[in-house]
Structures are given as C-alpha cells and as structure tokens.
Amino acid sequence: MKRSTYKTIFVAAVLLFAFSGRAFADGGAVVSVQPTSSTIPSGGTATLDVDISGVSDLYAFQFDVLFGAANVSATSEIEGSLLSSGGTTFFIPGTIDNVGGSVTATADTLIGAISGVNGSGTLAVLEFTGLAPGITSIDLANVVLLDPDFNSIDFTIQDGSLTVKSSVATTPEPSGLLMLGIGLVGLVGLSRRKHAAN
C-alpha cells in the first residue's frame, strides 16, 4: 500500500475517533511550541519543537502548524522522541505549504496492542528559514491526542512566535578608547611640527 494511502487512512481514523468521542476540555496535557519565542536573521534557520507535558497514556496524535509565509518558510519536519520511546511508531510528517503558511496533518501512532506513553517530551521537530524581517506567530491547530482505546485526551495549547531580523550587518562604531588614541597621536604629531618650525 502506498504511503499516501496509509496517511489518508490514519488521518481519517484519527478524526473519526476523536470527534465521535467526548469534546476536548481545558486541562490535562499541555501541547506547546518550544522555545516559545525565537529570533533569527533573514536567511537563517530556527528549529522549533512541538512538545507535550503532563500527558498520560498517549498512543497517537495529530496536529497542524500555522505560520506567516511572508516571514518564514518551513523546510523540514521529523519525528520527536517521546512517542517512539514507547515502542514502534508510524510517523507521517505534515504537508508543507509555504504559500499558505502551514504544515498540515502531522500524525504519529504507536503500533500494536500496547500502552501509551506518559510524561513529557517532543512530538515533532520543525525547521524554519527566515525570509523577511517581522514577527510571525507559530500556532498549533487541529490538535488531536488519543489513548490506546482511541479516546481523546484533554489538553491545552501554548503557541509560539518567531522573529526575523534583517541580515544586513551594521558597521560597529569605533570604541572611545581607540578614538582617544588616534586623537593623541594627532596631537603629538601636530606638536612636533610646531616645535620643528620654531
């Protein structure tokens, strides 16, 4: 079976089980962008983690990441270490859209009749490249967390931001001590000329 077919089936199953169950409530686990704030130059890169803390029995997850396409572009996404610490996984990196500013349908699941993972760690790691100066939010959307019985897990979200600064280098101003030294050399030279003229 092709990878795209696996992806379609998995995402459909996650959405079906998630939205046929109970509604998400505030509390429980926290899914966050880490670090919450980063700064890079135009042309520079930033690595941001989608982390989770305080989760119990996590078996599968899905999320989207939204960003300002005028300021940054997403270049890659890889699986984080948390879910794979519980066993064999099937990871689907999200579809990158650098025109619309999104990485959609990132998904990961444990395989087999096993328990989910507990605690805190990284779900996925994304890399961004700075395009133009400005600040863009890095927002999480369509987050789904499931336990081994495909019941939804309660969570809250903490988004992040990425600041892109101009990569034009500024010329550093000479230090005051250097300027004083140049001035003294000039005064000594001027004094010698006057002395020689007399």
Walk me through what this model shows.
This protein has 198 residues and is of the alpha+beta class. It has a single domain (3-173), classed as Immunoglobulin-like. The chain is 20% helix and 47% strand. It has two helices and twelve strands. The strands form two sheets. Strands 2, 4, 6, 7, 8, 10 and 12 form a seven-stranded mixed beta sheet that branches. It is elongated. The relative contact order is 0.26.
Précis, in short:
With 198 residues, the protein is an alpha+beta fold. The chain has helices at residues 3-20, 176-197; strands at residues 29-34, 37-41, 45-58, 60-66, 72-79, 89-92, 95-97, 102-110, 117-130, 134-146, 155-158, 160-165. The strands form two sheets. Strands 2, 4, 6, 7, 8, 10 and 12 form a seven-stranded mixed sheet that branches. A five-stranded mixed sheet has the order 5-9-3-1-11, with no helix packed on it.
- Give, in order, the helices and strands: HEEEEEEEEEEEEH
How far apart are the first and last residues' alpha carbons, in Å? 99 Å
Structurally, how many domains make up the residues? 1
Fraction of residues in helices?
10-25%
Measured on Cα atoms, how large is the radius of gyration? 27 Å
The first-level CATH class name: Mainly Beta
| Alpha-beta content class | alpha+beta
Number of strands: 12
Summed up, the helix count is: 2
| Low-pLDDT regions | 3-26
Choose one word for the global shape.
elongated
- According to CATH, what is the topology? Immunoglobulin-like
The averaged pLDDT comes out at 83
